[in-house]
Amino acid sequence: MAKSWKSDVFLSTSHLYSSAFVVDKFDIINDIPQRFQLIGAGWGHGVGLCQIGAAMMGEQGFKYNTILTHYYPGAELIYISKKAKRPYLKLFFVAVFLSNTKSMKNWSWIPTLYFAEGLPYVVVTLASLVFYKQMGLDNAEITFYTSWLYLPWVIKPLWSPFIELAQNKRRWVVVMQLLIGTSLGGIAFTIPTNNWFQSTLFFFWLAAFAVTTHDIAADNLHMKAIPYHDRPLYMRVRLLCYNLAGIVIQGILVMIAGNLQVIYRNSISYSWSIAFYGLTGLFIGLCLWNHKQLPIACKDHHNSNLHDIGYKTYTSIRSFFTDTPATTLLFICLYRMPEGLFSKVSALSLSMRLTMADSVSRLRNMVL
User: I need a surface site. Which of 127, 154, 159, 233 has the fewest CB within 10 A?
Assistant: First the structure.
């Protein structure tokens, strides 16, 4: 190489690898790691382009297209806009994603993972309101019973250390997705039965605990599998797919259940049962896809015993209550309270207004 940086010469007789690296801790005893593992990103920060090599090629007179095709053979450089005279940065990212198979592999599991994370959350917290309302429960009963379904998210920190330390996150994700799909199938199966309320509430409760556990495992798997410097790139994709799940449930699922009621002559229980069977099939399909596509991270294993896990759980809970000021806890409660009230009451209020409008319309038709 024709040139090297002063820091490289000072710290190494040849050249330093990229400074992007991740430090993993292992064999934690009394909150003190006994072993460390440093995993570097290589010469190109994990995307395949050596900054020093590209700089040297530029100094030697090579053009940008020659440099990019040198590091990404087989990539095609195209213009994003007809008005653009040069592709610049956007064209660089096109070349990266066309040729970097590791990035393409991430795109095969990150969208489906977070779509599967948001789907059951909206089913448990919002779609259940519409379901119980149409099944004939009054607003007081609905708000009382469905509010308890949010309890797993409140006490999630109690068992999150177990998920973080006990086993690999990929297995937890797949098992929890299978349990969520089974719970949705249980809801669909028990809706037409005589004890539909107790049975569906049990499966909603089971799904709620599975969803919270799935959230912990999925987020930890994402942190282990994606390098730190690549995480902002996928953050928007995560949010998009998570929110898309809410649109699917609140819009498409409720719409399908309503159309089925028209087809089957206002058979509410039968219509919702079919809708939940379809949702079960969709989620089982996501589970099978993620089982095939989720990465197996070598960093995703911990050799921790039950004593370490219990101590970690105790220290996490103690630090949360001792290190967090009371004013901060009060602010969190007051900040989240309007959201909880709005998510519950608004759906029921709209449903009640629609029911009243439908009754008035029917009465008017009878009079006329």
Answer: 154
